[in-house]
Description:
Elements: H1 6-14, E1 18-22, H2 50-55, H3 57-76, H4 81-91, E2 95-100, H5 106-110, E3 117-119, E4 122-129, E5 135-136, H6 138-148, E6 161-165, H7 174-184, E7 189-193, H8 204-211, E8 215-220, E9 234-237, H9 240-252
Parallel strand pairs: 1-2, 1-7, 2-3, 7-8, 8-9
Antiparallel strand pairs: 4-5, 4-6
Amino acid sequence: MAAADGHLVELIRRSRAILVFTGAGISTGSGIPDYRGPQGVWRVQQPVYFQDFMARHEARVEYWRQKLESWPEIRHALPNATHHAVVRLERAGKVLLVATQNIDGLHEKAGTSRSLLVELHGTNLRVECMSCHLMSEPDGHFRSFAATGEPPLCEACGGFLKPATISFGQGLHSDDLDRAFAAAAQTDLVMALGSSLSVHPAASIPLAAVERGAAYVIINRGVTDHDRYPGVTLRVEGDVGELLPPAVDAACG
């Protein structure tokens, strides 16, 4: 474990309303692959666009095939030191909101309160009907698809079922964005953890906080789109799972 960064410790210690913004880089330590890195998911398979999912049976089959392939690693993945450090920040009364780009559900598994969590790109831990928006648990739907090869339909209305994630071409939920930008207007410190900060509109959330005077910390392995932004208070290069936990321990006692 790396030694705590003194500047990071002091920023956390002084803060009373942290906006935690997380990306795929915090979950690789839990065995979840990222999407845009050298071994990223989108380098080995083509995503199914939302419009195609809704329009073509073949696209729905391919979508569910891809999701079934990754479901075991999602289902069994466990939170790592970064997720637990975020929970410790919450228990210390310092977290205003956790806004994540991740769809693996690991913040929820770690114990982040649902009232303080916004999953901007949705979650694989639930399945949503595209017609009536009824939510259900995934396991039964994946068993059905594995057995029949037919994409499942909603038992309530017959609509198309889809893991409750935001696909390419599908808009983010406006209430999630509203909650995140509202937190950006109130935070005194925004920490971007494990994100390339290249996917919009999500990546605009930290910048909205900085424009209102919040301190801005970026911890990531590899370059981000915000590295040269003049409002960055502290940029720490490296594995967030090694860098954040000791800083949280030092700041929160």
